[in-house]
Design a protein that fits this description.
The complex is a heterodimer of chains A (292) and B (273).
Chain A: H1 2-7, H2 11-24, H3 31-38, H4 43-55, H5 61-70, H6 84-95, H7 102-108, H8 114-127, H9 133-140, H10 160-169, H11 176-180, H12 188-201, H13 209-219, H14 225-238, H15 244-249, H16 254-268, H17 279-291
Chain B: H1 2-14, H2 18-30, H3 37-43, H4 49-62, H5 67-73, H6 79-92, H7 98-107, H8 111-122, H9 131-151, H10 155-171, H11 177-193, H12 197-215, H13 231-245, H14 261-272
Helix pairs in contact in B: 1-2, 2-4, 3-4, 4-6, 5-6, 6-8, 7-8, 7-9, 8-10, 9-10, 10-11, 10-12, 11-12
Classes of the chains: A mainly alpha (292), B mainly alpha (273).
Chain lengths: 292, 273
């Protein structure tokens, strides 16, 4: 999950925030200071504080409160009309596991800023609350007025990949006919999100079930490193065992391959029989051992 | 042979896209030629993870001839290259890297480095060590690995320490059956309190494999090339090991992973809040 935010989205902004983190780590921020900064005058400190609360998983009630308030911030605007503070607040709320944030995040799906909607969809996915499904479907159908497209090419009207991934994880099985249409979307990242969601939403008895997983395995042969990283994350999320060797062999950081294989391993571990390892689990661990 | 080496190196130098570079490095690595060492090491600084992974694999295959240059690279300022170099040293298991790996496994800032170093500590080329140094080296490795397996905050580093401990338990089965039992009883404790499912599963696999290894006699594959190390090397390793014992009194050199210990601890504390 963690790597998703780094893999795509507004990379430049992520980078800036990470750099700020390196500088600030020298004189540590405290929880109280971060909460105060989030309500302070300095816009830069506010954005950083929102990121910091998520990064260090500060789930104190006051932190949740100020982050929810920050989702309606009007002070911090980019030249293109974006809301940097809202973006970071939405991202942070997904990491804090507090369902109280769900209504505010659903509201954030109406934001004019593409990246706020993207972050909100990702966070609703992480919070696993199915009450957001109807609004996510409207967003996927581009039926929410006032939502502006992404400022960069290909200027997508909506963050389709984040929305589709959320619907898949939330188990919105009624949406599979709608998501199926995105399997051929011109943007590869969106095709993979659709394959991943279709795998999650299709029953194992269905004969095309593995076809969706196999689409992702084939995508690991892509030339583009960013796309391979994204697909590693998708395969880990669905725990698709037949992908194990392809994951181990693809050219990407071992860290990302290990997180992906961890997803496969977790799916192989049956809570009911803690003292037995399936052949699949042993195979995955052997591959993981070689990547350490 | 030299002809093909030059061709392979030129392909790396001429690569003008990240995909071509990865392919070229993969091909050069696959040739397993000592002459490829400088080019492969240079690749570790290119900030191309696909190429770096391929170069690390290649350098591990070539093995100990690459060790001196890798140790040299650790002194330089490129942090990413440093971390790849430590990964490579962990994979080779050369005794000259022992003390570096001990420091990296327990205190490096980067989890990918701690992870690689932990596995490497379990898989040192123990058969190269002279008897008087073997015991102290293995005791240090065991202590470090038991610490990492239980205290590191990242699941994958603890996972890696379990892998290292399993290898170490195998290596000392005959010489120190008491240590081996100690490792096994730690596995019991870890299995009981570990939160991460993948780590618990790996403990279970280690327990099962160690049991099987006792039943059948050890069929561990040992590469039996003679040690290229000189008595000078051993003396240096010995001094480093004793130096490590008194490390608290020292000021760490630039680039030493232990310099990051305070920062790592501060971040870990913040994570718990």
């Amino acid at each position: 999950m963690l790597c998703i935010g780094i893999v795509r989205g507004n990379r430049e902004q992520e980078q800036k925030v990470e750099n700020a983190a390196n500088i600030q780590d020298d004189n540590q921020l405290t929880v109280e200071q971060a909460i105060a900064n989030l309500q302070g005058e300095d816009l830069g400190l506010r954005v950083y504080a929102a990121w910091w609360l998520g990064r260090f998983r500060v789930d104190a009630p006051e932190a949740i409160d100020v982050l929810i308030t920050a989702l309606e911030d009007e002070d911090d605007r980019t030249n293109a009309g974006g809301y940097p503070l809202r973006r970071n607040a939405a991202r942070a709320l997904g990491k804090l596991g507090e369902k109280r944030a769900v209504p505010a995040l659903i509201k954030a799906l109406e934001c004019s800023d593409f990246y706020v909607r993207e972050a909100a969809a990702q966070s609703l996915e992480m919070l696993g609350d199915s009450s957001s499904i109807p609004r996510l479907i409207e967003l996927l159908n581009d039926q929410i007025p006032g939502t502006l497209p992404a400022p960069e090419p290909p200027q997508l009207t909506q963050p389709f990949d984040a929305i589709i991934e959320a619907l898949g994880t939330l188990g919105a099985s009624d949406t599979s006919p709608l998501i199926q249409g995105f399997l051929d979307h011109p943007v590869p990242r969106i095709q993979y999100a659709a394959a991943r969601a279709m795998y999650q939403l299709t029953s194992q008895a269905n004969e095309v079930y593995n076809e969706y997983g196999d689409r992702l395995v084939q995508a690991l042969a892509q030339d583009d490193l960013q796309l391979r990283r994204a697909v590693l994350s998708d395969l880990g999320a669905i725990g698709y065992l037949p992908a194990a060797e392809a994951i181990a062999d693809t050219l990407a950081e071992n860290s990302l391959k290990l997180i992906s294989l961890k997803g496969l391993l977790e799916k192989q571990l049956q809570p009911t029989t803690p003292h037995e390892l399936s052949p699949g689990a042993i195979k995955v661990m052997q591959l993981m051992d070689a990547l350490l | 042979m030299p002809d093909s080496l030059n061709t392979l190196i030129r392909a790396v130098e001429d690569a003008n896209s990240s995909v071509l570079l990865q392919e070229a490095v993969k091909n050069l690595a696959a040739a397993r030629l000592e002459g490829a060492i400088p080019t492969l090491i240079a690749t570790l600084s290119y900030n191309n993870p696909g190429a770096a992974v391929a170069a690390v694999d290649g350098l591990i295959q070539i093995g100990e001839p690459a060790v001196p240059s890798l140790l040299e690279l650790l002194d330089m300022h490129n942090y990413t290259a440093r971390s790849w170099a430590i990964r490579t040293l962990a994979g080779i298991g050369d005794p000259r890297a022992l003390v570096t790996l001990l420091g990296a496994a327990t205190a490096d800032f980067a989890l990918s480095v701690r992870r690689a170093a932990a596995k490497g500590l379990g898989m040192m080329k123990w058969h190269w060590f002279p008897e008087e140094l073997l015991e102290i080296a293995q005791a240090e490795a065991m202590e470090a690995l038991l610490f990492v397996a239980q205290e590191d905050e990242e699941w994958v580093v603890r996972y890696s320490a379990i892998v290292g401990l399993q290898c170490l338990a195998n290596a000392i089965a005959v010489s120190h059956p008491d240590w081996r039992s100690q490792i096994l009883s730690h596995f019991e404790q870890i299995a009981a309190k570990e939160e991460s499912w993948p780590v618990r599963a790996r403990v279970l696999m280690a327990q099962q494999e160690l049991q099987t290894a006792t039943a059948t006699t050890q069929t561990q594959h040992i590469d039996n090339r003679p040690s290229p190390l000189s008595s000078m090397d051993w003396q240096k390793i010995m001094e480093e090991l004793y130096g490590r014992k008194g490390q608290e009194r020292l000021v760490f050199a630039e680039g030493d992973p232990r310099r990051y210990q305070d920062l790592a601890v501060a971040i870990a504390q913040n994570t718990d809040e």
